[in-house]
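Q&A log
Question type: sequence-to-structure
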Amino acid sequence: MNDLLLWPLYSGGLAIAVVVLLSLDLLKKSRGNATMIEISIAVQVGARAFLRREYTYILWFVLAVSALIAAGGVWKPETGLSWRTAVAFCVGAFGSALAGYVGMSIATRANSRTTEAAREGGVKDALGVAVSGGAVMGLSVVGISLLGLCLVMAVFRGKAQIVNGYAMGASLVALFARSGGGIYTKGADMGADLVGKVEAGIPEDDPRNAATIADNVGDNVGDVAGLGSDLMESYVEAIIAAMAIAASLTLGETSKTEMVMLPMAIAAWGIVCSVLGILSIRLAARSDPQKALMNGTYVAAALMIAGSWLVVKWLGHGFRGGLDETRFEAMGIFYATVAGVVAGGVVGFVSEYYTSHKFRPTRAIAQNSQSGPALTVVEGLSVGMKSCTIPTIILAVAILVAYHYAGFYGIAMAALGMLATTGIIVSVDSYGPIADNAGGIAEMAHLDRSVREITDNLDAVGNTTAAIGKGFAIGSAAFAAVGLLVAYVKTADITTRELALNNPRILAGLLLGGMFPYFFSSMLFKAVSRSAFAMIDEVRKQLREIPGIMEGKARPDYARCVDIATRGAINGMLVPGGVAILLPAVVGFTLGKQMLTGVLIGALVSGLMIGIQMANSGGAMDNAKKFIEEGNYGGKGSDAHKAAVVGDTVGDPLKDTVGPSINILIKLMCVISLVIAPLLA
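Response status: OK
Response body:
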């Protein structure tokens, strides 16, 4: 096994080496004038302060859960749980936090440099800087993930319960980082938009708006640091789900070792594909940012398919195996992996279609905005609900295809195929917040209007790539959750008869699980609402009580709004996160392992629909606003624009708080169940 760890180790090292090179190159670029530098530093300080406070609270959860894991090993040592599992859990949590912090640190330094590049070199140079900043986040996620997993595998010799602890640690941090960051960014964003653009009639990111720095900080802590932890969790759990199922296959020792290590080899090749895809974006960038970003993603996917065939031929050459009554050939694993890659591409394209203002659904929302905000929101919700149809069908077909060719192992490999190029997926997603910040700096520094037009173009593309990234994350969550669920059923020793629908515990569990994503979502919505209310009140108060703000003679108290957003996010994330962690354990230990199975299935089904609908509704309403701002239906300041701004504020918590948190929720519940499964058995 140690020899097979070398390729993932080399690939992880390659990712970190490219991160260092990109960071050094980016930091050499000009930060612009003194005002631009001052704004960028304010965003950096606010983002660091929030992450320090957030990670301090998360640390207490990590210590408490790791102590419980170690105690479980003392209580029942025969289950495989031990202090080693607790250590792996802490390593996973640390890796997730580190990836988010590294990506956020570079993103907050790339913002003013992107603005300056837009001013001096136009679209191509600005796109290059923003993509480099996003690539640091993307490659940090995959590099740190794979190196951490190699460390756990090498030190603890790949024992299943220990490796599962690594995934659980990454998942726990991801839930808090994504939900906390989402509450922060949307509370600030809604406050800035509703008071600034709708009530006061001042432009977006205007320096007279007290919430504008908090809004720019939120883009980084939510859509960069939170996103990094989110996709790291998806990536790690896709790998570990496949490894866990491989460990249960009926195989000879050599073949079983190869099947356990095959997911890591596929992930290693995926890093190479991501690096080449990022390089192709930088080389091909011209005047069409969306085309460059999408082409880079497709290049990586094509290379992934070609390389997967070679990897499977290399490790699966003598493989003949199966799970239960299902038997399959080695190349079936390749076909299953391709099914995941293709499904990911289709889900991404559907997300692009429903959220880009180049297509009819988003333009229909903009058209409806002429009749007021109510129709904007109704049409936006309709678009999001309709967008669930094709991705769900594609995922269902891909699951059947993957199972046909390689059983449950194939389903897990399909999830990994979808996420193997996570490096470039996160890169094109993280580029969006950098472009958004760059536009804010252009506005606050009073640069020429042409600079803001370039950054707005980049930002509109960023909304679409963000929706595509969320589509990948949610789609892969369904695959990974199925893989983790199968591994849980095997580990908990649940028979086929116990899973029958005439078992009342299964039926009750389905209802309870189907309800929980809605309950979880309501808590996040409430947290955003409280934070936004406090932000709106503060911005109104400053506009009313500080003389000279509207004339530009006095400076708002930006720090006050940053503090409000920070406290709102921390207070809002603790209860939902704690409930999500406790639910699987409470159900499993009090109501039984069969009912927990029903809970996991119910949460998967309802959570998948909520995640897709909310991500696409929010993205579409955001881009409908930007379509109007380009001069359509009256342009900025028109009644249609004001209605679209209201629609955008409704869509903000949908796409950036609740939607992304749901896919983490369903996987966290599954991986916690997998870790405690030996105790339930």
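Response note: The mean pLDDT is 83.
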